[in-house]
Amino acid sequence: MGRIPASYLMNRVITLVLTIVIAATLIWLIPRLSPVDPAEIMLGRMTAGAGTVEGSEQILATLQERFGLNDPLLVQYAKYMRNILFLDFGLSTASFPTPVSTLIANALPWTIGLMLISIVITFVIGNLLGALMVWEHTPRLWKVAIPAAMVFTSIPPILSGLLLMWIFSAQLQWFPLTGAYGLTVEPGWTWDFVGSVLHHGFLPALSIVVVTFGFWALGMRGLMITVQGEDYTTLAKAKGLRPRYILYRYMIRNAILPQITAFALKIGLLIAGQVLVERIFAYNGMGKLLYDAILDQDFPVIQGVSFVIILMTALAVFIVDLVYPLIDPRIRHEAA
Amino acid sequence: MADHSTPNAAGAQTPDLTARQIRRMKRFDNPWRNPKLIWGAGLLLGIVAMGILGRIFWDPDLVFTGSGLTRQPPVGLENLRGQVGTWAHPLGTDGAGRDVLALLIIGAPNSLFVGVLASLIGMSIGIFLGFSAGFIRGRVDDVIRVLSDVMITIPPLLILVVFQAAYGDISLTMMAILIACFVWQSPTRLIRAQVLSMRESGYVQMARLSGASTMHIMFREMMPNLVPYLFGSFIANVTTSIVTAVGLEVLGLGPQRIPTLGRTIYEAINSGALIQNLYWWWGIPTILLALMFIGLLLINLGLDEVSNPRLRKL
After folding, report:
1. Does A327 reach chain B within 8 Å, measured CB to CB?
2. Contact state of A159 with B286 under an 8 Å Cβ cutoff
3. Which of A285, B62, B158, B271 would suit a FRET pair with A108, their CA atoms being 20 to 30 Å apart?
4. Nearest Cβ partner of B166 from A30, A152, A159?
5. Strand pairing partners for B93?
6. Domains present along chain B, CATH in parentheses
């Protein structure tokens, strides 16, 4: 970390902490301003199930006490912030005694796995295609096909997901319709299970890749146009280096680094898009958890999921900001 | 490119240029006649026109439940029950007997309305904060910069999910205002950066030396130079706003009683329309939304080329 100035590091740390505090406060404050009472919702669910509930007044009072709804607001806020430090979001109201953190811990690996795979694939494909759009030796067919494929950029992945799901799952039945792994396989490190996970994850990942590679391709195209006019490219050509060598070693290597900063701006939208994809594919990740929680009006889970996703986004941005000056020596961070 | 200034003579001087290339050369004279821009604007105008003409030539009351038989296919197609679609419902009906064409006529302008309103509000906030940060600098700049850095990492969808889960039904305007709270950051950053670089430039210094007021410098000297950036940022924000609104609707949140494209998709998924092969129910709104996003993307790409001539090519 020797090359990162302390003031820059401080700046990034302050931004990270502020992001987390503001997000946590908003998530806490918004439901407090609403007239809906989680204890009443829970009691309502019991009443709906059983017809009448004996001693409902008493249960309501106990629940409100249990959730700490009788404390002064500031005390509630302080308790909430302390709990959030330890990622404790309380107990789910829909599946009552289960802690929210357990539910999230079960869903998180699926979301992170799907996200990493789709981001790596899009980054590679997008940047390569973007570079090919500018390179003068690209076959003519590609020069026509790449811009045509980019029309799908900026369509939210939920729409591409629906179309792919209908074609490949419902019509052709090549891929399963829902879930993250088959009902008949036992989770574990077996070939059956891994195969099933890949089979189920293919369509969700594809629907994200199809609509996001264009973002990287467009950015890469702009950067490549700049690099193309640089003296070192001309020199490389004059030396008689092979065009392919110039493309990979001289042009892409110089153009790709600023693309990494684009992650910082894009990652929030990527995660939000993926949450929706998980919802339509009923993939066992955070999206499904969030959607089920919305249906059940399960506030602790909604708050927990939202907070964890925002935390993930903020951490990702923080890491990109820190790593970037290390890998791109051209950047000199002035004191902010 | 030497022929650029005298396009009429281009053909005579360089016979190896095809007629097509000469036509493209001429287009450089007016950057606004950009094909991407025109196609994109055409697509969006088409959707708006559908919303307006549709209300005149088609019965908007057909969006209500039970306007026709349920799950009727579009004209000439057959559903799983063997019913053939009729002209009474050219694009078929959904699971509650609502006419899909009427849903599009009412729903598509609603989606655009949310996007444009949210983006307009976000833009106004962004212009105000960006100019303040760039001009006043010091503490004000620090606060605005850190705040926009912070807010740009928070995905709007997740905060809005918490909000709507707590409050239930909201109106379209309310949804637009809520989304606007999350789309002011990028115009703020953009304007701040531009203002900081422009305030040292010759013509701004000149204006300041001639005693022009701050307002004059902001709106008469700087603003015209920002227009292509502002417009690009505006369109990008319209896209983000619509994506967020559709995301909320597909999660079953958002306005509950007003027909929107996202809500139609939500109802279709929940009723198992994918398995029952009721493709027109979710498919037609999906394709219309996709066209809307393609139109916005083309406008944005066109604007990029207008403001950055290096991206244009023959």
Report:
1. no
2. yes
3. B271
4. A30
5. B99
6. 56-311 (1.10.3720.10)
Tokens of B216: 């004059």
Identify the weakest region by mean pLDDT among A68-72, A188-192, B24-28: B24-28
Residues in a beta bridge with A99: A91
> Residue A67's pLDDT is what?
67
**Cβ neighbours of residue B1 closer than 8 Å, sequence gap 6 or more:** none
Q: How far is CA A129 from CA A218, A219, A246, in A?
A: 9, 11, 16
In the stretch 75-104 of chain A, residues with CB closer than 8 A to chain B read: none
Q: CB contact, 8 Å: A282 with chain B?
A: no
* Structural domains of chain A ordered from first start: 105-309 (1.10.3720.10)
pLDDT tens digit string along B149-183? 888 888 888 888 888 888 877 888 989 999 999 88
Q: How close does chain B come to A34, measured CA to CA in Å?
A: 6
Q: Is B188 in contact with B133 (CB distance < 8 Å)?
A: yes
Residue A47 has pLDDT above 80, yes or no: no
Query: What was the pLDDT predicted at B122?
Result: 93
CB contact under 8 A, A299 and B166: yes
* Cα–Cα distance for residue pair B167/B161, rounded to 1 Å: 10
Whether A159 sits inside 8 A of B252 (CB atoms) is no
Residues 6+ apart with CB under 8 A from B287: none
Which element (helix H / strand E) includes B215? helix B214-216
- Which candidate from B158, B253, B301 shows the least CB-CB separation from A272? B158
Which residues, in sequence order, are CB contacts of A242 under 8 Å at separation 6+? none
* Distance between CA atoms of residues A91 and A99, nearest Å: 4
Answer yes or no: do B166 and A31 touch at CB < 8 A: yes
Q: How far apart are CA A14 and CA A195, in angstroms?
A: 43
Model pLDDT for residues B210-222, shown as the tens digit of each residue: 888 888 888 888 8
Nearest to A96 by CA among A57, A51, A41: A41
Q: What is the pLDDT of residues B98-119, one digit of tens each?
A: 888 888 888 888 889 999 999 9
Most B CBs within 10 Å: which of A17, A22, A155, as the mutation test of the B interface?
A155
Among A31, A151, A267, the residue with its CB nearest the CB of B294 is A151
| Band of residue B238 on the pLDDT scale cut at 50, 70, 90 | very high
Is residue A139 predicted with pLDDT exceeding 60?
yes
What pLDDT, on a 0 to 100 scale, did the predictor assign at position A3?
Answer: 63
Whole-structure pTM value: 0.83
- Residue at A213: amino acid letter: F
Q: Which residue has the higher pLDDT, A21 or B91?
A: A21
Q: Are A277 and A271 a contacting pair, CB within 8 Å?
A: no
What is the tens place of the pLDDT at every residue in A298-316? Answer: 888 888 999 999 998 899 8
**Is-contact B111 B262, C-beta < 8 A?**
yes
Choice among A36-50, A111-125, A277-291 with the minimum mean pLDDT: A36-50
Interface mutation vs chain B, best among A154, A203, A271, most B CBs within 10 Å: A154
